[in-house]
Structure prediction request, 244 residues.
Amino acid sequence: MRLQFVGCGDAFGTGGRFNTCFHLVGERTNLLIDCGASSLVALERLGIARAAIDLILITHFHADHIGGVPFFILDAQFSGRTRPLTIAGPPGIETWYERVMETAFEHSSKVTRKFETRLVTLSERQTVPIAGADVTAFPVVHGKSGGPFYALRVAAEGKVVTYSGDTEWTDTLVEASAGADLFVTECYVHDRPAKNHMSYAALAANKARLDARRIVLTHMSRDMLAHAGDVPETCAEDGLVVEV
Ligand SMILES: [Zn+2]
Ligand SMILES: [Zn+2]
Prediction:
């Protein structure tokens, strides 16, 4: 399998990077992890065939992680998609789906389309088989309101990819990273404290506890981007492909 960083930016376009969106593809797997507000532009730029994507996994309901869904859906509608699409995320996904669709395009949550859109609620620590992948959600720490916030572990085709979602360091990440071939973690700042976000210092202090063959950093602020050359881990760039 391969994971391509469609977007590895923070919420604010720092460094000219697109919002969070990863494309995981294998022989039988074709899914997105998060679909931030700018993701349709990023997918188009990389020439990724949206019609072949079966599943969009959502870590949390911030616009830089879910805001691209309305554009994805309307693009699919107008390009004649017939393949069913599943969108899976934390509890509240049905309400949030309607909310983001109606905010972006009035009445768009009610339209009957040529393809079925299935919404799946992911519960903590319950592995759900969806679109050829076994998906497990773990609660992470990203603020008091607007949650739940998840890290996601995706097992498919004999490989495991874990993404931290947006979170400060939490021991749950040790559990979520178990056996991961690739662990993608947000890393917002370098060594200053950051509430609700990961600092590289916190990651480095806990790195030995993670059970991951490879770690790639994403969702970097200007502060962390300035230190990208100082850390041994790979720092993601938009378009980067990692073979899993
Ligand atoms: Zn974010
Ligand atoms: Zn967030």
Helices lie at 39-46, 63-66, 69-78, 93-104, 172-176, 200-206, 222-225. The mean pLDDT is 97. The domain at 2-236 is CATH 3.60.15.10 (Metallo-beta-lactamase; Chain A).
